[in-house]
Specification:
Length: 331
């Protein structure tokens, strides 16, 4: 009998985590183990996890969903589990979700995923799945491809042994899509969305349609930077991925002009920062460093964006630096 482990990534959503764990414990097909990757939570999460005798938990700094799933899947794989059932703390599975996933496996190794349903009404389908908008419209057992990791996805160790792990350096915003394309495009594994296996999740914010804050929404940086890596895995060709990325950036700039209500010019100028890091393959920026730069650069008045660099440029020309003086300065 193959062993199944549920891997849950959490960060400062203590009450949501409890709901998720309760749903896992109430499954009609119980997983053999539950692993929670605690992504540097600063709320009551750590205290509560320490009190649970049936949960394995890993503590780490906040490495985002990508770093959480990468380390969680790696641990489960090394411990010999055959199936790894992935989710984060902001969603939870229906009581028969795992049973229906397990029962749907075929002769070949496949990536199996639950269908994402809005947890507010437990009926509305969140991501486009054929023509279906609500669960009561479903008339078939599964949909080929179109899976959305990591919300209730069941990944076999045979896939991990060939494909590897999610890219931890992506942090978030795109890591799940890149992993899906790597599994299905590069390594040609089949993927199915099992329609009688429901995973309840909150609707994901769209940076194309919804208003975002230029001074605090650091996720936009990862969304724009990581897209090039996602497209490389999707197309398997650097040149095609590059041109697709330029089209994506152009469309995002258009969405700023059309859908954003505030700071349109500043938001357009912001786009070039993650775009530059994507082209340079810069991976080192953390949410803290991104947030700090956004606060410093975009909290100023618009005139500061123009005159501060100009003042710095003039100082560099007309004011000699210390190393250019002939005698040292003493105090």
């Amino acid at each position: 009998m193959e062993k199944v482990i549920a891997v849950v990534v959490t960060h400062n959503h203590y009450s949501d985590l409890i709901t998720c764990i309760k749903a896992i414990r109430n499954q009609t097909h119980q997983p053999d183990a539950i692993l929670v990757v605690n992504n540097g939570s600063t709320d009551f999460t750590s205290v509560w996890l320490d009190q649970q005798t049936d949960i394995i938990h890993l503590y780490q700094d906040n490495l985002g969903s990508a770093g959480g799933f990468s380390n969680g899947i790696s641990w489960a794989y090394q411990e010999g589990y055959d199936w790894i059932w992935c989710m984060d703390d902001q969603g939870f599975p229906k009581n028969n979700a795992l049973e229906n996933l397990i029962n749907s496996q075929g002769m070949n190794t496949e990536l199996l995923s639950s269908i994402m349903v809005d947890k507010k009404d437990e009926k509305t389908i969140l991501r486009k799945t054929k023509k279906y908008k609500t669960t009561d419209q479903i008339q078939e057992p599964f949909v080929q491809n179109g899976s959305y990791l990591f919300n209730g996805s069941l990944i076999h160790r045979n896939i991990i042994s060939k494909v590897g792990l999610p890219l931890a350096h992506l942090f978030e915003q795109g890591a799940e899509t890149e992993y899906y394309y790597r599994i299905t495009k590069k390594y040609n594994f089949s993927a199915k969305t099992i329609l009688n296996s429901e995973h309840y999740q909150s609707e994901v914010k769209s940076f194309f349609k919804n208003e975002w804050d230029l001074k605090s929404d650091y996720e936009v940086f990862y969304f724009l930077r990581n897209k090039l890596t996602v497209l490389k895995s999707k197309y398997g060709n650097v040149v095609i991925a590059f041109f697709a990325y330029l089209v994506f950036i152009f469309n995002f700039c258009v969405s700023i002009l059309v859908n954003q209500k505030t700071n349109k010019i500043r938001k357009l100028s912001f786009v070039f920062w993650p775009m530059k890091d994507a082209l340079k393959n810069n991976r080192h920026l953390t949410p803290m460093s991104i947030s700090k730069k956004m606060q410093e650069q975009y909290s100023n008045h618009f005139s500061g964006i123009i005159f501060k660099p100009l003042r710095k440029f003039c100082c560099n020309i007309f004011v000699p630096s210390l190393k250019e003086t002939s005698t040292p300065i003493t105090i």
